Amino acid sequence: MTQVETVRGPVSVGELGTVLMHEHVFVLDEELRRNYPARWDEEQQVAAAIARLTEVRDRGVRTIVDPTVLGLGRDIERIARINEQVELNIIPATGLYTYNDVPFAFHFHGPGTLLGGDDQLVDMFVQDITEGIAGTGIKAAFLKCAIESELTPGVERVMKAVAQAHHRTGVPITVHTSPAHQTGLTAQEVFQREGVDLGNLVIGHSGDSADLDYLHRLIDNGSYVGMDRFGLDILLPGDQRVATVARLAKEGFADRMVLAQDASCHIDWFPPGVREAVAPNWHFTHIHDDVLPALRAAGVTEPQLDTMLVDNPRRYFSATGS
């Protein structure tokens, strides 16, 4: 059976169990953290992360898929240190997270730049997948990129680099998108143009929309849709998220949906206490404590829940990219 790379080494896809397909351990600005150390207590945050991940493990989750890449503060050594204390599979990613430009380290060289040449991003992503991240030997198992409101030249360059790395390694792709701007369709157009089988894509954050026409178009194009922000009720109320998943499941599309919360143990995008006040349900155990009972009450069957939480992640990581 196919194996998938995790922070603790390769695991058979058959052993992934219940999977939350889009969760972060930490989302940080590492430059800020290093230069303003008072903003960060390493031991406290590591201990808190261990406690939160243990809670989700105790709910029956066996695997989380962590799409923290360059631009979101990936520190694989810290994640490994935490994972030593929690019996949980953590699947790491490679890629680059930007809504606009590539970092200045790549701004002047590469395709379409002042100096031209090959895109070093491709080799970096491939190295993370084939050799390991930051010299640790911990290998990335999927690729991550982002598009928010528009396809900027920088965003398109990252997508093309991700597509090339996918072709060289076969690992699947997850894309942060904005349903409000229907950029999931834009992402599909770019990847299809780059020769990627759209069945190898998760269109992330699709669950921020209750627009069934938009969701049907994404599904009809062949991708998985990430119903992966449960708890972010400020973007779409939870009852609408549940109703949308239940409707799609009733229509026979449980095999095209994956579930998650896009939560984190710590995210430095908000001042202390704001996340908890504005989005009190945005945490790792919300799905198992609240969402699954609501989905069952809305008519979603146990086999359909297993499809979304177990079977679809297994297929996603089993596929061999073209």
TrEMBL record:
Q: Which cofactor does it need?
A: a divalent metal cation
Q: Please give the coiled-coil regions recorded for this protein.
A: none
What Gene3D superfamilies does the database record attribute to this sequence?
A: Metal-dependent hydrolases (3.20.20.140)
The UniProt entry, under PROSITE patterns, shows: PHOSPHOTRIESTERASE_2 (PS51347)
Q: Where does Zn(2+) 2 bind?
A: K144, H176, H205
Residues the record lists as binding Zn(2+) 1: H22, H24, K144, D262
Against Pfam families, the record matches this protein to:
PTE (PF02126)
Q: Which GO terms describe its molecular function?
A: hydrolase activity; zinc ion binding
User: What is the name attached to this protein's record?
Assistant: Phosphotriesterase-related protein
